[in-house]
Amino acid sequence: MNKIIKVVKVVILTVVVLLPVIVLAKDNLNENLKIVSRGEVEVVSGREKLSTEVLNFKTEKEEKLEENNKKRLDIYKNRLAKARFRQGKGNILVTGYSSTLDQCSGNPFITASGTHVHQGTMACPPQYPFGTKITIKNVGTFICEDRGGAIKGSHFDMWFTSRSKALAWGKRVMRAEISK
């Protein structure tokens, strides 16, 4: 009996939340829907772009990790300001790595700088201090937060969410800009 009551509650809740969204979507076929929050939808007419807040939505855990990573990297700002290393545009060798035990020493989710791995983490040669920015043309901007035993010279290692993605990336010579 309790199971039936739970199922009925779930069905009613689903209908109450989703029915207005479905009706709104049906009435506005030529318009876009913008999710404002859970259960709240806003109609965006014409060719308005969705706000970056919606497109770059982060969970509380992701926001906290990002905040902690920024605090960690602030420690290295003085070293970065004083450091002398090759800056500017040039070609670099970029390989991929992931958080697997055979590719990391210690906790595979913590970088050498003490931050948690995330999209945009880069393992750099020792001459580049933590916090160095590496902008790779047509790929994105990465922050030097990690080290690696085989990472020397102009060889950089980009972090991926899975081993298969890192292997699919392979070994590429890329045009990059390195800056403080």
Task: Give an overview of the whole structure.
- There is one protein chain.
- With 180 residues, the chain is an alpha+beta fold.
- The protein folds into two domains: 2-57, no CATH class; 70-179, Barwin-like endoglucanases, CATH 2.40.40.
- Helices cover 32% and strands 28% of the residues.
- It is built from five helices and eight strands; from the N terminus they run H-E-E-H-H-H-E-E-E-E-E-H-E.
- Strands 3-7-4-6-5-8 form a six-stranded mixed β-barrel. It has a two-stranded antiparallel sheet with strand order 1-2.
- Strand 5 (133-136) and strand 6 form a beta hairpin.
- Mean pLDDT is 75; it is low at 23-31, 33-41 and 47-54.
Write the layout of secondary structure elements.
Blueprint: H1 2-27, E1 32-37, E2 40-44, H2 52-55, H3 60-74, H4 77-82, E3 88-98, E4 121-123, E5 133-136, E6 140-146, E7 155-160, H5 163-169, E8 171-179
Parallel strand pairs: 3-7, 4-6
Antiparallel strand pairs: 1-2, 3-8, 4-7, 5-6, 5-8
- Tertiary shape: elongated
CATH superfamily (homologous) name of the largest domain: RlpA-like domain
Instruction: Estimate the helix proportion, in percent.
Output: 25-40%
Count of DSSP H/I helices: 5
**Main sheet?**
6 strands, mixed, barrel
> Strands of the biggest beta sheet: in what spatial order?
3-7-4-6-5-8
Strand content: 25-35%
Distance between the termini: 65 Å
Number of strands: 8
CATH class (first level) name of the largest domain = Mainly Beta
Give the total of domains: 2
Low-confidence stretches: 23-31, 33-41, 47-54
Rg over C-alpha atoms, rounded to the nearest angstrom: 23 Å
Do you know the CATH architecture of the largest domain? Beta Barrel
Round the mean pLDDT to the nearest integer and report it. Answer: 75
Give me the strand/helix succession: HEEHHHEEEEEHE
Find the structural class using helix and strand composition. alpha+beta
Q: Output the CATH topology of the largest domain.
A: Barwin-like endoglucanases
